[in-house]
Amino acid sequence: MADNKKTIWNKLFPSFFPDDGNRGMALPSGGIYEDFIGDATALNGVFNSSTEDGQQLYELPKSRHARYGIYDLMASDPTIDSALKMHIAHALSARSDSGEIIKIESVNDEVNPIVEELKTALAGIINRDCHSWAYNAALYGCWFARVYLKEKEGITAIRSDYYTHPRFVNEYQQAGQLAGYSSTWQQASTAGMQMMEPWKFVAFKIPIWKTVSTEPQRIDARPFDISIDDYEQDTVIESQNYGQSLLETAFTPWMDLQDAIVAVNMSRKNAARIEQTIGVNTGKLNPAKSSEYLNIVAGQMQKTEKSNAEKSLKKGFIQTVIRHIIPIFGDGRGRLDISTVEGSPNIDGLADIDFHIKRLGSALGIDPALLGFGEMLAGGLG
Asked: pLDDT at residue 163 above 80?
């Protein structure tokens, strides 16, 4: 019976060999990686590089753990969040007749007790949680669910929460075949971190099409020899396939868009500011009288400005008029010379916003017109 069970597991997971010591290896703990959180601190100094002329370039960090915090920050942008949800809604649309997203059924019309059992145990859970699994996989590139099994009962529960976040899970392979997992939240034994069986996790991944240029981490000290035909003798390595986030290529356009938005906002604020230079002609008054005269004029203006500012603040805005008072000596006492300088916003800056929006939409695979920029539809009839 035990040999039969081992044969079944080997068919499902060819690289899992419990009798060969795979589970006894000392694995690195996931806790050695810094836990990047999804706020602005994730962007500090981890991706900037400078060109020869001093221009800043934006690059994602190489470590997948460092990227997760940046992806969280990007997903808080309503434009990117809408794009991800749109992809998920299209990929996992429900059937109009049954409302099911995933349907479990036999390949033929015959009643299969195994299929019926799987349908009873999993159909409800999958249809309830598949949107969440898919969204997180699209965001991070992969998402893990912890599957709880009981002998002669099958799957009893599925965990998908903080503890199954990909930053805490490491996947291991042998000759390209899944060998097992380790987790930051896994208790280590005296021999070190032990590899968990490959059936304890289910990985949801966005396919990755490009190879990684760095050598994977090998678990044991054996030299790697690709000429060996017996893959069971191959060393166990940490997988480099943790999927590819849909936001990976959108990072640079998104950062450029943020810079453009900040620049336009500052231009608008600067344009809203009005500066006045007020020349108070003091005539031929002596310095004491001139000072007194200036203080009277300035005090009256300050009193009026303070009153108006309090009224405008109650209405939700503040005044942006800045006044500079300078004395003018000469004839014509009592005359005020007022010179006003008003800024004008650079409307051409909006073209930069449109350009970065188009680049971002291209990287996300969504037409910008579907992300709230309806004026970009043909003819501007959005």
From this structure: yes
CA angle in degrees (0–180, nearest 5) for 174-178-182: 95
Helix axes 64-75 and 251-272, enclosed angle (nearest 10): 40
Residues in contact with 268: Cβ distance below 8 Å, sequence separation at least 6, in sequence order: 345
Q: 222 vs 121, which has greater pLDDT? A: 121
Whole-Å CA distances, 186 to 30, 159, 162: 9, 15, 14
CB atoms within 10 A of CB 246: 22
Q: How far apart are the first and last CA of the chain?
A: 67
More confident residue, 117 or 158: 158
3-state secondary structure of 174: strand
% residues pLDDT > 70 (the chain): 65
Confidence check: pLDDT of 158 > 80: yes
Residue among 120, 123, 87 at smallest CA distance from 102: 123
CA dihedral 230, 235, 240, 243 (to 10 degrees): 50
pLDDT at residue number 259: 85
Nearest to 149 by CA among 194, 204, 200, 195: 200
Q: What is the pLDDT of residue 33?
A: 39
DSSP symbol at 128: H
Work out the widest C-alpha separation in the chain, in whole angstroms: 115
Distances (CA, A) of 250 to 62, 256, 363: 16, 10, 5
